[in-house]
């Protein structure tokens, strides 16, 4: 003889069934029910589900958000609300700019509105990309200014600035060279001096020229460093390398081109 099922087990089973029935529909079933309501012309139910879906739109994956926006646009167009329909198509294209409606199942007027919105969206996107293209530049390390002051500025098209830095560098190098030569001559004269007064005068000349070597060297280092800082921060490329993204409104493809 079979044992009767305990009463508490029956109650627990009924409670589980009632809780499952009371749980809200998942995001996926909500999208399916929304599309099914539209296809069976149950517009009150569709409007109810659409309101719920739009309130929680960020919780849906991109593919389902695209479907929700598509049918929301269909419904707004059906109600004669053209601008809201365009806004939903626009949001759809922000998810996938290459998306296209099925011409066999979409009413011609709705398809025409979508195509017009897509063209405007792609034109707007192209303008934004052009603005981004103008603001993005490739500025390499100015290694030429490390070799000699002014070379990088001259190479980048800043001819006057490059000539100024290069001229300052040449003057400093010439100063170093002449200081070294004159210091050698002064040292020789100092070593050959015989009288006390002459020795003192020759030493002062030698010491002054000897120190001038360091002064000219410090001046060249200052010019070299200043030229590099100028090339690094204040002399950008006049013809920067650019990255452009070309979108064709009549084609679903997106073409990426890099110009060097």
Describe the overall structure.
By secondary structure, this protein is mostly helical. The chain has two domains: 24-135, Alpha Horseshoe (Serine Threonine Protein Phosphatase 5, Tetratricopeptide repeat), CATH 1.25.40.10; 144-233. The chain has ten helices and two strands, in the order H-H-H-H-H-H-H-H-H-H-E-E. It has helices at 7-22, 27-39, 43-55, 62-78, 82-95, 108-135, 144-147, 151-155, 159-192, 196-233, and strands at residues 242-247, 254-259. A two-stranded antiparallel ribbon has the order 1-2. Helix 4 (62-78) runs antiparallel to helix 5 (82-95) and helix 9 (159-192) runs antiparallel to helix 10 (196-233). The protein starts with 6 loop residues before the first helix and ends with a strand. Residues 1-5, 17-27 and 240-260 have low confidence and may be disordered.
Summed up, what is this model?
The protein folds into 2 domains: about 25-135, Tetratricopeptide repeat domain (Serine Threonine Protein Phosphatase 5, Tetratricopeptide repeat); about 145-235. It is mostly helical and about 260 residues long. The N and C termini lie far apart (about 90 Å).
Characteristics:
mainly alpha, 2 strands, Serine Threonine Protein Phosphatase 5, Tetratricopeptide repeat
